Amino acid sequence: MSSTVPRAQRRMLEEVRTSSVSPGVGGPTVCWSDRLAAARPEEFDELFSSAVTGDSGAVAGLHQMLETASEWCRAHGARGSAAELDVLAGRLADLGEELHLVGEGMSHEIRSGSH
What we know:
This protein is mainly alpha-helical. The chain is 73% helix and 3% strand.
């Protein structure tokens, strides 16, 4: 990651990149990437959707972080940075839609290949 990105922002981005979920109450926390790599074909598309484009997925988490950072910048007079973050959040929303479509296509392709 670029040295021009502040340390706190790099840490937040790393947390989003390696975000994890607890598969069950009291269960161990497992990284989404590990779960995807170990998924059976019949569960991959649903897991991918949850991990990437779901309400608690990576795109939603990063989008929320960008919006929060934009609001903070705006509240502290950094309007230019806030505007840049807003643009990135919009691009991320577009990417999320594309990833959703890829997930739908992948689901169809996996189901077709399993017959």
